Amino acid sequence: MNDVSISIQEHDFNFADELEKLEQDNQQDGAVVSFLGRVRNKNLGQQVTALFLEHYPQMTEKSLQQIVQRAQQRWQLGRICIIHRVGLLAVGEKIVMVAVTSQHRSDAFEATQFIMDFLKVEAPFWKKEVCEEGEKWLSPNQTDVDKAAQW
Amino acid sequence: MNDVSISIQEHDFNFADELEKLEQDNQQDGAVVSFLGRVRNKNLGQQVTALFLEHYPQMTEKSLQQIVQRAQQRWQLGRICIIHRVGLLAVGEKIVMVAVTSQHRSDAFEATQFIMDFLKVEAPFWKKEVCEEGEKWLSPNQTDVDKAAQW
Amino acid sequence: MIKVSFFAALREQLNCSELNLDIALPLTVAQVKAALISQQPQWAGSFNNVLLLSAVNHQMVDDKYNVNDGDQVAFFPPVTGG
Amino acid sequence: MIKVSFFAALREQLNCSELNLDIALPLTVAQVKAALISQQPQWAGSFNNVLLLSAVNHQMVDDKYNVNDGDQVAFFPPVTGG
Fold first, then answer.
1. The 3-state secondary structure of chain D, one letter per residue
2. Mean pLDDT across the stretch D59-67?
């Protein structure tokens, strides 16, 4: 398999299957770190019923590829998988997964966090929250901006 | 389910099933970070055929519980799962998984890394490497000692 | 001629996802915004938002970036994926 | 009387995984090591290894820790799990 797999998709994914792919014929990488993000039932104290995810199709994958390349320059990484869903997602549904294999546990940890941190501030995705009261586009979180700036 | 699940076992585990359990009836934690460690086929340039994992049965779980408690005091965590295998493990087999859910991605990342870092230097497990040339108990890695000291 | 796209809250505010802008080029991104506002004065509020992000040919750029004929320009609010 | 356990490389070096030590207590961990060496002089090399770790009642302790009657003492090399 290719070392980097990036997918933007409406349909759900199977987290275990994706991890399995990262590990197939890959006996040199002892460490796999993964992040899975799901739709929470609450945001800023408000009950959420669903999230709508919009993106900029031609730009999204390119943006994620650039983030991955920066991570690869910085750490010794094996395989990388990024899946981000778009469209309408119910509470509890998966939004995003990032998984990184490496020979070194700390490289895998840092690269996974780095990719998530930059995905949050650079990749052209936008969340609209659907509540009982109506719909609302979310604003970026200052913590997220600060986190990316720390690298 | 209980918020903390710790298991020391000889038999293999299903990574996906364990993650599933962490997420069952858990709609408030949007973030899940996990680490999976496998037996590598090489160590310090030498071909490895298997690993033998010994532990100190009465102490291991207690030691992991104490590490978890320290993590819980430091970050806002949801559920935590630690599984560590013992006995004879072939190349490619799973050795350890740590997974942490949280409302906040960075809490989940840091706690997972913290638990792994202290597991490496405090939990009474010992690895013996089996090569064609014979068997050899492994020495701790200075990097691991330094990592735990950084927290 | 350049193609200009709008996304998310900005797309809804403008009630427009895409338009072709027939204009003498090159222009900076700031000048493209000014040209859009001069054609649609009611868009001024949305385009004067300091947080608005710009991309040219799918790459984030700043207001001083030069836009050439055939470029694909996009404007959007700060991103919130992940 | 205390129960003393040995693990991993140390267990193999000593060729012993567990023994009962009938001795006047309390003693420090360092004194327990000395008592073991006086009973088995060939163990001196293994016990003088500065990296050797000690646990009493399943809790890591240092050489000055006091061992009491009925305690479970364990000696082992630095851990290498994970």
1. CEEEEECHHHHHHHCCCEEEECCCCCEEHHHHHHHHHHHCHHHHHHHCCCCCEEEECCEEECCCCEECCCCEEEEECCCCCC
2. 97
